[in-house]
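Human: I hope this is not a bother. Would you mind checking the protein record under this note? Thank you for your patience.
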Amino acid sequence: GENIICDILSCFFISQVIYFMATLEFLEDENGEQQALDFIDHLADIAIEDPKVRDLVHRIEQMLDVLEDVGVPPIGKRDFERQKIDGTPFMLAPIIKDLKRHHPLYEARVNYNRDYAFRLIFFYDIEGNEEVLYFTRAVLKDDTGVSTAFKELAAKIKNIDFDQACYESEKLYRRFSLKK
């Protein structure tokens, strides 16, 4: 498809889909903490010594870059190919998922082999002509239930249960909605 970049409108056109540039914000909770950002920062600290976590953090950075470039892509257009640190391709597929049990929340997704499933919970809002993604909580999931690497990493960070993260994110969303 034809690629057109529109700086004035902050959008770009790829394969018959128009994506608008988005703003990414990490919300503070009632204690003034930005759990999602702090979690990613903590992973980045661990990545200095751990090559697997370094690659995971690189993939998280790639995911955030895509979300900043495209915002919340439409269903059916949520798979993106990016490159690992070593230059080999990997898929962010799907990059986001609607959390139907926790509407209007979404999860941004990065899977690392079968070791880690990083999830960044968020909601979004349209402000003027701009899509703003508000990140609330970040967690690691062990979808296999047997990952030794996950257990080792989870012991190093303050990981919370996914459902608990969704509940806390719903509270942040309600607080956000009341301010509008």
User: Anything to note?
Assistant: The chain has a mean pLDDT of 86. Helices lie at 35-47, 51-70, 148-156, 162-179. The two ends are 39 Å apart (CA to CA).
